[in-house]
Design brief:
alpha/beta
Length: 263
């Protein structure tokens, strides 16, 4: 597993396969390990890159707010190090917020955009209050209470029933996230800007993937995002919650391959 020293931390990443480059950006509070089915299956068709964001997995932590722009800049610095001029970006949940920040800041680097289980709107007042409560919880009790409260909300009821192994592997992935990263992520998501006004400016082919049983992001928000982004398509996956890349990995991977062949 390679690592690179960036401005103020060391980033761990996977880089496998060859051809068109796709960069996968993980969600909160996860690591690049969430993309293992994509690394395994898509690397025979594409160059697949998956970093651990700062403080997650095997990347070192920094203190402070992890703004979406900061994390997008980290991904851009990794692409510079790897001499990748243009990339297809795939972000899930918080990774989608980072992808939108990347698209705003570095539009010339994008060859395509895949937004998974994510939204363009900023946090509501209630959402911000929930982030504050989670920050307090992490400060007082560490990552485990955060993990246990999230797991039932990340997966569809059918996944929870039929795939206990996935629940255990998710738990292990999330336990590799530092308290600094939990607090940094929550603080950054809480203050992220509303991206809805920017959506009509996105000028690369865009794929939106959403689980039909996602309990965290309403379908109406995703449909509005699809309507606002020119040249975008929306694919809904049955029996999937907030992690369709893990809940229906074969279908998710095929959806990505079909999209990339079309661009």
């Amino acid at each position: 597993m390679p690592k690179v020293q960036l401005s103020d931390f060391t980033m761990a990443y996977d880089d496998v396969g060859s051809g068109k480059a796709i960069l996968f950006i993980h969600g909160y509070p996860l690591t690049r390990k969430m993309w293992q089915p994509q690394l395994d299956e898509l690397s025979s068709h594409l160059r697949v890159i998956a970093p651990d964001l700062r403080g997650h997995g095997e990347s070192t932590a920094t203190k402070g707010i992890y703004t979406m722009e900061l994390l997008a800049g980290d991904c851009q610095a990794l692409l510079d190090y790897l001499n990748i001029e243009k990339v297809i970006l795939c972000g899930l949940s918080m990774g989608g917020y980072i992808s939108l920040a990347f698209a705003r800041r570095y539009p010339e680097r994008l060859a395509g955009l895949i937004l998974t289980a994510t939204r363009a709107a900023a946090d509501t007042t209630e959402g911000k209050a929930n982030r504050d409560r989670a920050i307090q919880e992490a400060r007082q009790n560490g990552v485990n209470p955060i993990i246990e409260s999230l797991i039932p909300r990340l997966l569809s009821p059918s996944t929870i029933q039929r795939n206990p192994q996935l629940i255990e592997s998710l738990r292990q992935i999330m336990q590799a996230v530092s308290v600094d990263a939990i607090i940094g992520d929550l603080s950054g998501m809480k203050e992220r800007p509303d991206s809805r006004a920017y959506l009509p400016e996105i000028n690369v082919p865009t794929l939106i993937i959403h689980g039909k049983n996602d309990s965290l992001i309403p379908l109406t928000e995703v449909q509005d995002m699809n309507s606002a982004i020119p040249n975008s398509q929306l694919i809904l996956l049955d029996n999937c919650g907030h992690l369709p890349n893990l809940e229906a990995s074969a279908l998710f991977n095929q959806t990505i391959l079909d999209f990339i062949k079309s661009i």
